[in-house]
Structures are given as C-alpha cells and as structure tokens.
Amino acid sequence: MRSRVLAAYCILIYLFLAAPIIIVVGASFNAGNFLTFPPQGLSLRWYVVFFHNDVFMRAIRTSLWVAAVTTCVSLVVGTMAALFYVQHAGRWKETVRVAMLAPLLLPEVLTAIALLFFVYAIGIGTRSMFGMVVGHVLMTLPFVFINVAASLESFDPDWDMAARSLGAGRWTRFRRIMLPLIKPGVIGGALFAFIISFDLFTISFLLKGIGTSTLPIQLFDYLRTNFTPEAAAVSTLSVLLTLGVVIVSDKVLGLKLHRF
Amino acid sequence: MSAASAAVAPAPSRLRLGPLVLIAPAAILLAVFLVIPYLNILLMSFRAPGQGTPYGEGFTIANYLRFFSDGFYIRQVANTLWIGFLCTAICLVVGFPVAWQLARGSPRFRAIGYGLVLSPLLVGIVIRSYGWTILLGNNGLINRTLTNIGLIEGPLPLMYNALGIVIALVHVFLPFMILPLMAAIQGVDPSLETAARSLGASRLTAFRRVTLPLCMPGIQAGCILVFVLSLSAYVTPSLIGGLRVKTMAVTVVDALIDTFQWPWGSALALILSVTGALIVVLFARLTRMKWKVART
C-alpha cells in the first residue's frame, strides 16, 4: 500500500517534469493564430511558417555550428586534462578536479559578464564568434572531463604495459588501446558538450554579436514580443534535433553515459 | 613485468614535466578566460561610471555605496534570496520521495524513472520556461480550464509574480536535487534501518536518526546546487516574471545590456554572488553541525 502511494506520487512528479514540454509540442500543431492548449484543430502551418523564416533558420545553423566547434575543442582539451588527472596528477589530483569543475561551480551569469568585459578589454569584442565559442567551451569542459575521467579510472594500466612491451609507441597505444576502451566516456562527454552548448543561454545572450544569435536566444527574443504557435514549432524541432543526436550516439556509436 | 611497471609507473607524489603538456591547454584556457576575467570584473566594479562610455576614469567605491544606500536594490537581493530559498526547500521536499523510490524501488521502475528525471535536462531552458508561460498565463491552460469548469471567476495570478517564478524554477532544477539525493540514498545500507527498528525505534525515528543523517552529504550537495543555480537563473524569471517581478540576475543583465552601466552591473553581480556564496558556506557549516549532533 505504502509503496503504491509512493509510486503514484512519483508518477505525478514525472508528469510535472514532462508537462511544459508536452504542452509546447502539443501547441506547435495548433491551427489557430494564437497559442492555446488544447489546439483549435490540428495543422502543420506553423512549421511551414517557421521553415520560411530566415531568422530562425539562420539561428539553427549558428547553433549547430557553435555546438560542433565547441564539442571538438572541449573534447580534445577535456580528454587531455582527464588523462593528466587520472594518470599523472599525483597529489595535485584534488586541485585539478576543482579547477576543471570551476565553470560549473561559479554562477553562469557572472562568468558571462566577466567574459564579456574581457573580450572587449582585449579588443576582440563580440564582432566575431570567438568570445561566444570560448564561453561555450568553458561551460562544457567540466562535462567532458567528468565523463572521460570516469572511464579512465576503470582503465587497466596493464593493457597499456602489454602494448608497450610489444613495442607500440605512445600515440599508437593511445589510439589502439586506450581510446577504444574509454570510448563510452569520450562519446558521453561529447554528447553532453553538444547538448549543453546547443541549449546554453546566458553565455550566448551576453556574448552574441550582431546576426550571430543562437536558437535559444532567437527564441527568447521572439517570445518577448510574439505569442504565435511558431515558437512552439521551433521548440519542437529543437527538441527533436537534440533527441536525434542522443539516438544517433546511442545506436551508432554505442553510448554509455556515466552517472555523476 | 613487475620490474618494468615499477620503472615506468609515475611517482605518485612527484610531478613530472612531460605530462604537463596534457593539462596545459585546459590550464591556459581556465587561466586566461576564467581567472583573468574574474579579476577584471572585480576591478571593473570599482571603476567610476562613464558618461556615454561603459566606464569612466579612475576608481571609486561609489558603486557599492549606491547599492547599500538604496533600499530598492537591497530588497531586490532579499527577494532573490527568498525565491532561491523557496526553490531549494520545495525541491528538497518534493524530490526526496522520488529519489527514495529511484534508489530503493524495483530495478525496472528505476531505469524508467531515471530516464524521466534526466530527460527534461535535454530540453533547453527557454523552451521549458515557454511551456510554463503557456500553462500559467492569464489566458493559459490552467486558468482557462478552471474558468471553464466554473471553479473561478477571473484568472488566478499565476504569472508575473514570485509564485510563477518559483513553480517554473522548481521544475527546471528538480532533477539537480533528485540526482544527488538518489546517489546518497543508494549509499545507505537498508539493514541499518532494520537494525534501528529491531532495537525498538519507530519507523519515523529510524528514518530521522539513522537514514536522514547518513543522507546528509547528498542533501547538502543538492541544496547547494539548486540554490546557486536559482540565484543566477535569468531566462525563467525573465519570461515568467515579465517586467513586474525582477530577480537580481535579471536586473544585472538588463543593466548591462540596456544601459551599458558596466561598473554598476559588475558591483551588483558580485554582491549577489558573494552573498550567495556566504549563505552556501553558512549552510554547509550548519548542516554539518546538525549531522554531528544527530550522530551522538
């Protein structure tokens, strides 16, 4: 009986967690001019409007581009740091860990403002996407680090020794022995980096230049003045894109996420 | 083999120079784009306000004096802290049973539940806040439904106030509370509770005196995470609160984007962050003390 009550309560909370997302997806198929739920008849008209809206299409391209660059940089830098942390840090281990997690521990708003002033101070400003990408790399680095470090911890150094005794060089050992064994962590880290970058708001909001709005920024700007279901269509597509990335990593690359 | 590994294995406490290449990119990145900008923003908060420029010549403590002499901003910080506190408390109370079920429930339920708790994190914060505006608005789903049923005459004030912000923030941050709680509960051996019960403790006493203190690290982690995140949240308070209710993060960002008052914005952002950090430290101290009391 008690466990039934608990299970029912949990289902209620899961519904609460899913509610706004279900509402947005439902609203995107609304045929009417204004956002109402339940929809006044079903239609794909707002998707058509959205696909003809250059502003949103450009924002999607910008988002994907920023997320792709961020993921690559973050993955290389984070994996190297994780290698150092697990194998070479010695008594500096805790220091390295705290430093790598620092962007997560500091308030994102403060980091964004600090970075904004800094890019102006060094004369780059927000004309190029440099500042924004750097911000994205900072915010995604901890996730790559956590995931790769977790799989490195379970990597048996004897494999490396065996390969070494057979004459394999440093790079070959990394590529042929270590990388395949820590692949789940690397892919998990890359996935986290991509999704977090794709949805990152405050950093992009403050560091965006003219015409380099990412999708969340464009959506936010739109929502401040408009209430048509087009925003719901944009949101639904964004959710589908993220879901697509997760499914592809799961099926094709053999993902195994580490809990943290 | 053992001789070889002894020769190759890095000395546990000494740092060798070669591997430093591995940490160099991350170290440079964090030093240049995190440490220096933070020092710069600290400096910026002491700069004089500019006339037509983001900041002027010379240094001053006027920005801090302005904050402490103006009741409006102090009240706003108090409001923000209050919203953060409410979010944290509600997340803890609402999330604990879910974390319990995830940690102790049947494995099949656990896997599905874990996915359901994590999946909202895949959806961007703008989209989730947008969903809440559809639900909570004066013409939103909740008000419309209640009016149609005849339960209420006019719309309930669910949006453009602190209530709406708290509801939406609880939704956004609940997973960050549930995950550390779940990890903590999983680490508590259920037989400890059974032992307490067999010694005559009631179910409630066993929970309060045995399980809860052992979960304390997870409770601490979850509370700190949610509190810090809710203080610096921008999107949700901005969309749900509108122009009516502003949290500190919204005021700070608007001060920077709309009016370009860099020194003033820096001072505000730093005051909020330092206040938040002090509360976190205080909270960590207090909860650790309680934990010791509970152990004796």
Quick structural summary:
The complex is a heterodimer of chains A (260) and B (296). Chain A has 260 residues and is mostly helical. Helix content of chain A is 75%, strand content 0%.
Overall geometry of chain B comes to globular
Pick out the low-confidence regions of chain A: none
Largest sheet properties of chain A:
none
Number of helices of chain B: 13
- Could you give the count of β-strands of chain B? 2
Helices of chain A, by number, come to: 11
Which features would summarize this protein structure in a list?
heterodimer; A: 260 residues; mainly alpha; MetI-like fold; 2 domains; 11 helices; 75% helix; B: 296 residues; 2 strands; disordered N terminus
Task: Kindly describe this structure.
The complex is a heterodimer of chains A (260) and B (296). Helices cover 75% and strands 0% of the residues of chain A. Chain A is an all-alpha fold and 260 residues long. Chain A has 2 domains: 1-43, no CATH class; 54-251, MetI-like fold. Chain B is mostly helical and 296 residues long. Chain B has one domain (56-295): MetI-like fold. Chain B is built from 13 helices and 2 strands, in the order ααββααααααααααα. Chain B has helices spanning 2-8, 20-44, 62-69, 71-104, 107-118, 125-136, 141-149, 162-186, 190-198, 203-231, 235-241, 248-257, 262-295, and strands at 47-49, 55-59. In chain B, strands 1-2 form a two-stranded antiparallel ribbon. Residues 1-13 of chain B have low confidence and may be disordered.
